[in-house]
Amino acid sequence: MKNLLSTALILLLSATSLALSSCGVSGVSSNPEPQFDAQRALRFIEEQVEFGPRVPGSEAWSDCRDYLMAYFDSLGYNVQRNDYTHVDYVTGQTVPLTNLLITQKVQPSQDVSSNQAILLCAHWDSRPRCERDPDPARRADSLPAANDGASGVAMLMELAASIKDAPPTVPVAFVLFDGEDWGREGDVNQYSLGAKKFASHSDTKLYRYAILFDLIGHPTAKFRKEKFSEKFASAINHKVWTAAKELGVQRFIDTVGQGVIDDHLPLLNAGLPTIDIIDMNYKYWHTTLDTPDKCDSAALHEVGSVTLRVLYQEQ
Ligand SMILES: [Zn+2]
Fold first, then answer.
1. CATH number corresponding to 27-313
2. pTM to 2 decimals?
3. Where are the domains of the chain?
4. For residue 228, how far is its CA from the centre of ligand 1 (angstroms)?
5. How far is CA 293 from CA 41, 61, 96, 120, 145, in A?
């Protein structure tokens, strides 16, 4: 009798926990966290770099824009293209720029207003110059931008594929900023052109928070909490570094590192809590050596898995 009772109790308890695990707080069914395919993400870096440097206005840039639009469209997302221009006040040149906003066609929750999306961000442009190149003769060359650009874009591309069939409960949107790396060193007004445009022309209240990915593909990449992210969006940093701890990912180091001027700043200024996941010790930064062989699947796999953990824990 005692045994029967305990068996009945165990059955009851497991039925309850099954019911709980299949139901989000809002009553929306939650899907299991998918695996992140880092090999495919690595190929997305190679494919972008094969176009050549995606310097705004170049043929490589417009070809890559079409490739990115076709890719997200083929996965079944809405792709909004936002074209605009910037007048470079050093040269007088009018620079064409394009942001891409990618959203789910079917939102996981119908009540979008009470269930704002998480916005994942990267920059898809390439720097027009390599002033850190060890060879002075190559400093006027454009950046291949494998890690400084394409790695973040590849992260978004693979995350979009990972979540499409069984999305998390929370809506997810992706934005690819142009013109992040346009400015000359020290000229902060001509950096983050796309993020500034997005922050001033979008309803940032549609989003719960944002995560920016930059320079995430190098095998030795280490991620400390970026200083401005920690100052203005520490709760988001906490979510990400806690997920990394749960997964045993050691390249996320739970200390506050340097601050950096990057695309998270315009979003923070617009009141959207945003963090920057960035490796600030990339040795090939702004050199012609920033090529796909400097990226590997291990770092991408860890960043992708941590992000999926965060997304699938949200209700
Ligand atoms: Zn850069």
1. 3.40.630.10
2. 0.90
3. 27-313
4. 18
5. 13, 21, 30, 25, 12
